[in-house]
Amino acid sequence: MDRVTAVDPLRTAEIIAVGSELLGATRLDTNSLFLSGRLASLGIELRAKSVVGDDRGMLAVVFSQALARADLVLLTGGLGPTDDDVTREVVAGVLGLPFTEDPAIVATIERRFARRRMRMPENNRRQAQVPRGALVLDNPNGTAPGLYIAHDAKVVVLLPGPPRELQPMMARLCESLLGARAGGERSYTTSAFVTGRSESHVEEAIQPIYSRWYDATPPIQTTILAAPGQIEIHLTLRSADPGAARARLDEARDAIAAALGDAVFSTDGRFLEEVVGDLLKARGLTMAAAESCTGGLLLSRVTDVPGSSAYVRGGVVAYSNDLKTAFVDVPADVIAQQGAVSEPVASAMASGARTRLGADIGVGITGIAGPDGGTPEKPVGTVAIAVAGPGGAEQVRTFSFPGGRAQVKYQSAQAALDMVRRGILNGDW
Ligand code: ATP
């Protein structure tokens, strides 16, 4: 008679990033961020992350503890051919698994070297050592294969350190072995991105809505992430029914979006420069910019979007006063009378960019990014932004942005993009 053994789904996980360089001041463990996202989408709860140097004793302690606590332990790095690559050996030691050399792995590594007209160094044989019972995970982007070890009811996965090797390997695992062991429930997310409101305003407007979801079945978790110029609201729920999960999340996100009105610029993960680009393209409009304190950041961001040549005419960085006059016709006497950081100068820059660069919409940005240059009337963070459209349509505003130089520059570009966006939605241009 066949015996069918039911295997419990994997519910909890820990990640261990191995590498002494990750304990120093120059290298960051980004693999665990990527792995966190993949685990979340499988509905496996990440309980802890650790970073350990290339130290056999320390890794054995941290790995044993993780294995005792979690159903799944993911280790990254330390699978290379050298003596300080300790992961394979420590994991096999803790699990009590003997090694055998896998001739297929040796042959694959030899072929990789042969393609570069090189002989495989003997050291690389270490990468062909496979703990008994482990499944070998192909690594088309490097020499270190990954390993998948089902051990009692637990799973241990060893992944190579380089992100371009680890990411495709993990993606394949999620669709195959790990996906099959993850149980029926998955995690689903959606988001709404907001600009032009403070975190506390956003919180005040949506708290009465999302607090109702705490005790719902299943509950929706709301996370508010604030960055300069942008607030992200992320909604997450766990469910075994993809259709029902999506429908509930869409409904929840729409309720949030309705409460925040046109401060929400995106409900599909697009950044503001992409949203503005799509609007410009849809309306058949082009834009140009004259930038002072942002030093070209606005143009850099809009041109980060593929296909932006359809609507971006170009821009100038008119940092000094004489170039504001020479490039985009800002009258010198306006600068002298009003000061370079003023609404009349921003307006003149916007209309000058529009006419001199031959665009439908011109943007002008002039401000004080700091840390020097502020005055009592115009402190650091004062930025005047204007947008000029066809037929003399114009909007100009003065902002007071908090933060250091980089934050002031970023928020200025963000506010300028938002003025373009709102103007298009209002039919101003
Ligand atoms: P390979 O033999 O292919 O190098 P490996 O598993 O031995 O694989 P490591 O030697 O530990 O990998 O790391 C190689 C490189 O991968 C590191 O120099 C680093 O650039 C990157 N890396 C390693 N771990 C991480 C991590 N946790 N996050 C981001 N990058 C990492």
Q: What's the overall average pLDDT, rounded?
A: 94
* Fraction of residues in helix: 25-40%
Distance between the termini: 76 Å
The distinct ligands, each listed once, are: adenosine-5'-triphosphate
Which structural class is indicated by helix and strand composition? alpha/beta
Major sheet details: 6 strands, mixed
Number of helices: 14
How would you write the strand order of the largest sheet?
2-1-3-8-7-6
Poorly predicted ranges: 1-5
Counting DSSP E segments of at least 2 residues, the number of strands comes to: 17
Which overall shape is indicated by the principal axes computed on the Cα atoms? Answer: elongated
Using only C-alpha atoms, the radius of gyration works out to 28 Å
Q: Could you tell me the strand content as a percent range?
A: 15-25%
Offer a concise description of the structure.
With 429 residues, the protein is an alpha/beta fold. Helices cover 39% and strands 24% of the residues. It contains 14 helices and 17 strands.
Describe this structure in words.
The protein has 14 helices and 17 strands. The chain has helices at 31-42, 56-69, 87-95, 103-115, 163-175, 177-181, 199-210, 242-260, 272-283, 297-303, 321-328, 332-338, 343-356, 405-426, and strands at 12-18, 45-52, 72-76, 99-101, 129-131, 135-137, 146-151, 154-159, 186-194, 221-227, 230-239, 264-266, 287-291, 312-317, 361-367, 382-388, 394-400. The strands form four sheets. A six-stranded mixed sheet has the order 2-1-3-8-7-6, sandwiched between helices. A five-stranded mixed sheet has the order 14-13-15-16-17, sandwiched between helices. It has a four-stranded antiparallel sheet with strand order 10-11-9-12, sandwiched between helices. α1 (31-42) links the parallel β1 (12-18) and β2. It is elongated. 40% of the residues are buried. The protein binds adenosine-5'-triphosphate. The site of adenosine-5'-triphosphate has 21 residues, from α5. Residues 17, 19, 21-22, 29-31, 76-80, 85, 142-144, 160-163, 165 line the site of adenosine-5'-triphosphate.
